[in-house]
From TrEMBL:
Species classification: Eukaryota, Sar, Rhizaria, Cercozoa, Chlorarachniophyceae
Region (Disordered): 1-50, 459-493
Bias type Basic residues, positions: 459-468
Designated name of the protein: Low temperature requirement protein A
Compositional bias (Low complexity): 479-493
One Pfam family named in its UniProt record: LtrA
Signal peptide per UniProt: none
Length: 493
């Protein structure tokens, strides 16, 4: 490249008659590009013509006619060696999340009507499976951007399946087990088709797509077995959980142990997706507070105001504990940190649904003029809040903060223990006292976080998927780094 540049700068100026025709190919630029490709092949490795296509070269697909967009290659959201910038949430992702608002409301209604041990266990199983459905599609959408009609059809079918699940959660598992299994079977079929398209049309993600197809096919087989009427309910639940988590973690682990299959993620996009999921569950609590809030008694207003303060401080405790620099995020540290970060959100989301349901049941206790909160309501609200704080602090630990104060963590632990022992220390208490006490505890924890200085808002810098490629070569050939057929063995996640 430098030799060609020197020759062009030192050579005599061209005469008008020597200028190339507009219809002739640009020989100079072609020669220059060929030399760059040869130098890149000598430096990094030989790549095919399809594998060195830049991501931006496929962005013209959105301007193609409708018929030409029926079947097009997905676009990688993030590639190695390219600066990570803020990826906007797609409209489909926002629409898809709206379904989970309705789902959380229905699950809360089921839990309010079945707040015994069996009902709580059923709600937990339902939520674990529904989070699995949400997370599976999020993993795909966070890596690939699709613009063709095939993807639109698959997304519609997947969303319709989740809508059916939102209806089934109003029934006990013994009544909806086979219907739930069939819905999950259809959702796995959609993912197999979408990952199959990736394996066929995206050379850089071919191995990733093949592994994902195999993993989702294994899950689909387990869900297909669960649809058989002869399978008892207990075995169906076991098949669900096996298909959802061990199989999912298995193929994801295989993928991350193979460098040629690894694909980078956009940290800001993924963290926003999980933040939106938490916001949806918080929204269910707000709906529980404002529903039937037409009473004028003082106890009702205390529960409404302090319940909202409890939900708002939960929001502060979660979002203010997230790092503002992508380098500190769990998704940029290690694979096991990322897995803990992802699946702890399942526990945290279920705890938020439990808090909203507990507030709803407290309002019922006041309506029935009960002088003491019922034990079921008491325990549900208390232990849901404890689970929220424990899971939120686990998520906090997965991030890489430079300063961790032992005193701050000990204080947090003391507050969590006090909340957990509250039903033992005060077994009989009026309903309106609970949200007041727990809102004050949350407010104290929020003030502790605000004064600890652990989370500092810094400058939002663009970050790179770091490689050990020579910095001069990285500046000269950014498109080559973004089009590698495999992840360099020296790269860091």
């Amino acid at each position: 490249v430098n030799i060609a540049t020197e020759m062009e700068s030192s050579g005599p100026p061209r005469r008008p008659e020597e200028k190339k025709s507009e219809l002739a190919p640009d020989v100079a630029s072609t020669t220059k590009k060929t030399r760059v490709d040869r130098q890149a092949s000598a430096t990094i490795g030989t790549t095919s013509r399809e594998e060195v296509k830049d991501k931006d070269a496929r962005e013209h697909l959105v301007n193609k006619p409708l018929l030409d967009r029926l079947w097009q290659a997905p676009v990688l959201r993030q590639v190695w060696g390219v600066e990570q910038e803020s990826e906007k949430i797609d409209w489909f992702e926002l629409f898809y999340d709206l379904i989970y608002v309705a789902l959380a409301i229905n699950l809360s209604n089921f839990l309010a009507s079945n707040s015994n041990g069996e009902g709580i266990a059923t709600a937990v199983i339902y939520f674990a499976m529904l989070f699995f459905a949400w997370n599976s599609l999020t993993i795909f959408v966070s890596r690939f951007h699709q613009v063709d009609m095939f993807a639109t059809i698959m997304q519609f079918i997947y969303s319709a399946v989740v809508v059916s699940m939102a209806i089934y959660v109003l029934e006990p598992i013994r009544d909806s087990a086979h219907k739930f299994s069939f819905a999950f079977l259809v959702s796995r079929g959609c993912l197999v088709a979408m990952y199959g398209q990736v394996a066929l049309l995206v050379p850089r993600a071919r191995v990733f797509g093949k592994i994902a197809v195999i993993g989702n096919t294994m899950s689909a087989i387990l869900f297909a077995i669960a649809t058989i009427d002869a399978v008892p309910t207990g075995a169906t639940i076991i098949l669900w959980l096996l298909a959802a988590y061990p199989v999912e973690l298995g193929w994801m682990t295989v993928m991350y142990t193979r460098p040629e299959a690894s694909l980078p993620i956009n940290v800001e996009h993924m963290s926003e997706r999980y933040g939106l999921f938490v916001m949806l569950m918080l929204g269910e609590s707000v709906i529980a507070i404002v529903t039937d809030a037409t009473k004028t008694r003082s106890q009702d207003w205390v529960i409404i105001f302090c319940g909202f303060l409890l939900v708002y401080t939960n929001k502060l405790l979660y979002f203010e504990s997230q790092p503002h620099q992508p380098e500190q995020h769990a998704l940029r540290q290690a694979t096991w940190r990322g897995r803990i970060y992802q699946y702890t959100h399942m526990v945290l989301g279920m705890s938020l649904v439990g808090i909203g349901t507990g507030i709803k049941l407290l309002k019922k206790d006041v309506d029935y003029s009960k002088h003491h909160a019922t034990p079921t309501t008491y325990r549900l609200l208390t232990y849901s809040l404890v689970v929220f704080h424990v899971s939120n602090n686990i998520i906090r630990l997965t991030h890489k903060f430079k300063n961790r104060s032992l005193l701050i963590w000990a204080t947090r632990l003391v507050f969590i223990v006090i909340i957990g022992l509250f039903p033992v220390m005060a077994p009989e208490i009026e309903p309106w006292v609970l949200p007041v006490a727990y809102a004050l505890f949350n407010l104290c924890l929020t003030l502790i976080d605000a004064g600890s200085g652990v989370v500092k808002v810094g400058r939002r810098n663009k970050t790179k998927n770091r490689t050990r490629t020579h910095p001069e070569r990285e500046r000269e050939h950014p498109s080559i780094l973004s089009s590698l057929p495999f992840l360099p063995s020296s790269s860091e996640l």
